[in-house]
């Protein structure tokens, strides 16, 4: 299976998920994008068509190098991204969200983002 075919299958799965999952300003949609190196999460209000806030592991990499050692794996970084997006949403007085896995399996880094958001106080 080549890369183009794999991407097309993921996009088809994502469209199928998006047909069922909608976000509002009270309960936004947490959309996950996973690349080979990084992970990105956006809180989206689909009713207005705008992004409320976002987080990525690039923000976490700005921490001092001694604390960076504990986030050596990508799964641990994804967990911290989930906690970061939960903190940002709580500053906006949002306590619940709808999780959009973006066509990816609920496994590994995607699952770690969801668990990190739950650990940060967000409800799905």
Set down the secondary structure blueprint.
Elements lengths: L2 H16 L10 E6 L4 E7 L4 E7 H4 L4 H4 L5 H18 L6 E3 L8 H11 L5
Helix pairs in contact: 4-5
Structure in words:
The protein is of the alpha+beta class and 124 residues long. The chain contains five helices and four strands. The protein has helices at residues 3-18, 57-60, 65-68, 74-91, 109-119; strands at 29-34, 39-45, 50-56, 98-100. Strands 3-2-1-4 form a four-stranded mixed sheet. The chain starts with a helix and ends in a 5-residue tail after the last helix. The relative contact order is 0.20.
Task: Decide which structural class fits the backbone.
Answer: alpha+beta
> How do the strands of the widest beta sheet line up side by side?
3-2-1-4
Number of separate helices? 5
Low-confidence stretches: none
Shape: globular
Give the tally of β-strands.
4
Helical content, roughly?
A: 40-55%
Largest sheet: 4 strands, mixed
Please indicate the percent range of residues in DSSP E strands (runs of 2 or more): 15-25%
| Overall pLDDT confidence | 88
Over the alpha carbons, how many angstroms does the gyration radius reach? Answer: 14 Å
Alpha carbon gap, first and last residue? 34 Å
What's the helix-strand series?
Answer: HEEEHHHEH
Outline of the structure:
Helix content is 43%, strand content 19%.
Notable traits:
4 strands, alpha+beta, 4-stranded mixed beta sheet, globular, 124 residues
């Amino acid at each position: 299976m080549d890369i183009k075919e794999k991407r097309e299958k993921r996009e088809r799965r994502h469209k199928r998920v998006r047909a069922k999952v909608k976000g509002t300003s009270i309960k936004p949609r947490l959309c996950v994008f996973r690349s080979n190196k990084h992970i990105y999460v956006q809180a989206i209000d689909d009713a207005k068509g705008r992004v409320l806030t976002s987080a990525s592991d690039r923000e976490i990499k700005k921490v001092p190098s001694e604390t960076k050692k504990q986030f050596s794996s990508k799964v641990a970084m994804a967990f911290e991204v989930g906690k970061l997006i939960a903190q940002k949403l709580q500053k906006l007085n949002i306590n619940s969200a709808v999780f959009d896995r973006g066509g990816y399996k609920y496994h590994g880094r995607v699952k770690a983002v969801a668990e990190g958001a739950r650990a940060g106080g967000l409800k799905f």
